[in-house]
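Protocol step 4 of 6: structure prediction from sequence.
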Amino acid sequence: MNTDVAIAGVGMHPWGKWGRSFVTYGVHAARAALADAGVDWQDVGLIVGGETVRNGYGGYVAGATFAQALGWNGAKVATSYAACATGAQALDTARSRILAGQTDVALVVGADTTPKGFLAPNAGERWDDPDWLRFRLMGMTNPGYFALYARRRMDLYGATQADFAAVKVKNAKHGLSNPNARYRKEVSAEDVLNSAVVSDPLHLLDICATSDGGAAVLLTSLDYARKHGIADPVRIKAISTVTPVFPQTVMDMPNFSTDSSAVVPAQDRTFKESLGDAAYAEAGIGPEDVSVAEVYDLSTALELDWIEDLSLCKRGEAEHLLRAGDTTIGGRIPVNPSGGLACFGEAVPAQALAQVCELTWQLRGQAEGRQVEGARIGITANQGLFGHGSSVIVAR
């Protein structure tokens, strides 16, 4: 059974700190995706909005919010929230409706307006909320976790602060020609290592910012694409949203402990590794088939983790790929040719969609100034909170 759907159009609103409503960014991205596909808004039968929890009521019902802003057309709506995996879960909802025959055209939109500084839980006391507990009782901000993961790489695999800085240097260079990136400036290793230490061993330039921005993806059935002259579209081959299997012996943010393996043995694959495994299995390919990857570089060290989690190299070898130039455009497996979150910053509901936008442009040969030559298959990775994440595979 063919479970492919067509990516008919993609669009983005540039990342930055614009000080406007998230709706503005989402509508801009949605209209760009419709124009890219040459599809009229009236043809859209479903709109799925990526929820943003910091912008009041309109953010909690993002599907209806975007539908109203684009002009009521009677489309069905859905809203997804999965932290940084929001966009991928929204895509999965849209894809499922298309494959079920409930609609031929689905528009997926994610956008955010972020507060200044590092992300934190909403106000109020919530004693059953691990996210609130880690901030309020332990002072455990996101960069604290990033630093623990970085220190783990250093202890296990010999990673250095210079390696982490090299990831930033690479991504900054990739993002120079990306018109949607917020930061478009070359960075040297010295710039990274001389920036303030946020959480040892990570410096300020090792950690992504928070940003405003939006992204949209227009999905259609293959029949609709063919009938409307959308020839040889990029296709979604797999969307993985699997959850962990007990026990988890590697800490997963926002938890601050791990499961014991004294009685039940540890799994062969970690949770993050299982995300990529499930995507490869659904797509019927292996990591050796991947041309380009967009991964979740909340910190420079996390990019190295994700390269291994997606089996693009063996465990402990990511630094070797980096040092050899294999993860740079022109290398064996370019990672984050968009510039990644290092150049964009976090706009949470839009992030996973932005990765799919970038891979679509790459596979079409439209990533001017950052093109991965001959790209045919791309993979993404994102982590959500509370034991979930996502990986999307696209191909042409």
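Step 5 (inspection) to follow. The first helix runs from residue 22 to 37.
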